[in-house]
Specification:
12 strands; alpha+beta; two-stranded antiparallel sheet; 4 helices; globular
Amino acid sequence: GKALYWRQIAKHNRNILPVWTCQQHLYNTHPYTWFAVAGDSNANDVAALAAKLGMTQTQDAVTSYKLAIKRSRDQLDCELNSQLQCTLCVAPWDRFLVSHVLRTNMPDLRYVIRARHPPKKRVTDLYMNAPIIRLTKESVTPVLSADLGEVSYCCERVIRKWSTKLGGGVNLQLVETKRTPLVVSREGEEGVRYEYEFIVNIPNKVDGVDLTTFSDEMWAYGNEFAGVLENGMQELQAHVMPSSAAFDPISQV
C-alpha cells in the first residue's frame, strides 16, 4: 500500500527521538492515511512468490462482501457470502501496534498487531438472518432495518489464499483481495484495487514460538514481498488515489 503523512507532524530541533516514542506519538495523533493498494499486474508475481516460498493455494477466487454497520454506540463488521447471506458478524479490530515502513519505491509496508473480541451472541443473531443489502447490475441498496444500524461501508471482494507452516506450527497466510467498493464514506476509497497481506494468527500459548525469530521472519517476508511488487506498482507511483492531492506526503523519514 501507500502511507501518506502530513508534513506538520515533523518535529524540528529534535535530534534524538526513540523509535517507541515515535510509534506511540504516531498512534495517538494518527497524522496519516493508509491506502492498501496494488496494481492488477501484480497477481502473477504474487502467485510466483507463493510457489517460491513453498506455499499451498488453499482458496481460489471466492466472492464475498464486507460491510461496516454503524450503530448508535458502536460499530460492527459483517461478511456476506455470494448469496448475500451474513456469515460473520464481529467487532472492529483493536490495534495494539501499527508500524509503517516507508520505502523509496512503492509499495510501503504496514505491520499490525491486532485482536478483536466477538460481540454477544444475542447481538450477532440479529444480523445473521436479516436482509442487509440488495444488489442490482447498476447499484447496491442498503435494506438493513433502521433499528439495527446504518451500512456505512460495503465492498465486493474476490479473495485468493495461500498458506504454509512456520516454526512452532504457526500458520502463515498470503491473501490476495480484489476489492470493489460499493458504499463508501471516506475519500480515496473509490475504485477497484488489489490488496495483499501476510496474516499470522499468534496462538494464545506461545511457549513453542520464538517471538524474536518469528518477528525476524515476518520482517524478511515483508521485504521480499515488497521487492516482488515493485515493478507492477510503478504505474501507481505518481497517482495513488483520486484524493491523494489532499495530502502532502513525506518522501523520506
